[in-house]
Amino acid sequence: MKKQRAWVHLGVLCAVSVSLSLLEGFFAPLLPPGVKPGLSNIATVLAAGYYGVWAALAVSLCKALFALFVRGGVAFAMSLAGGVLSALCTAALLLWVRGRLGSIGICVLGALVHNAAQLGVATLILGRAALGYGPILILAAVGAGCVTGVVLHATWRIVLRRTKREGKPT
Amino acid sequence: MIKRLDLVILAGALLLAGLLGLLLFQGEGATLVVEINGTVVEKISLSSLQEETKYSYETPSGRIEILADREGAEILSSGCENKLCVKSGKIKKNGQSILCLPGRTVLRLEGAEEAPLDGVTG
Lengths: 170, 122
Hints:
By secondary structure, chain A is mainly α. Chain A contains 6 helices and no strands. In chain B, strands 2-1-7-6 form a 4-stranded antiparallel sheet, with no helix packed on it. Chain B has 2 helices and 7 strands, in the order αβββββαββ. Helix content of chain B is 20%, strand content 35%. Chain B is an alpha+beta fold. At the A-B interface, helix 5 and helix 6 of A face helix 1, helix 2 and strand 7 of B.
């Protein structure tokens, strides 16, 4: 029973992350080009905090596959690189520095790693000139991390209350 | 939600962004370099332009139109899907660039003195 429940939760988290990345598309015209609020990262952090690193990686992979089907190969590579690295980073942070970092710090660091990975992929494809996006991407990660950190804080409390499980990241 | 270490991270990231920005974008852009698929297809000296000039190139994601003048350059239209390059607006400063990932295209501004190796990518 417990195992089935975990699979269902994972499925829901994958669905949430895909729908949040769809929702993000509506904010795109309001933001600088290439900058996204990173809302779908909330699902990854929840997966990492609740079920650990493999669940977080599964959610990232699911989101990347969605990008592959909807937006093509380049988007897949970008989404996978950013998603996998930020999932690993978030899971590591939750494991090792749980008490000292707040949800905002976890989300900002996750976003920084995510953007760094995407910048890396862009540099592989386009060459060194892509690095000029670095400063904008760092600022974007700080902004996005603060937004998702606040949302994560609220979401985590609700999830805990509903499931009555011990342990929380913030 | 927020702790002292979080603030340290926030401040560090903002400082890094500022420093990188100061290091990367120095002075006015003098030469517009157009790269498609990793090779430099054109170098345009902005100061030699008398008026706004349109350039057009074929990229892996269709035709791309560039408008350049003495101040800088922007992408007017592109055959790609998401048009991030068009939305990027105009670049004016040395070191700034416009990227089009689906079109494998880079527009970037270089300073007056040209390092000969700047055209090589890998």
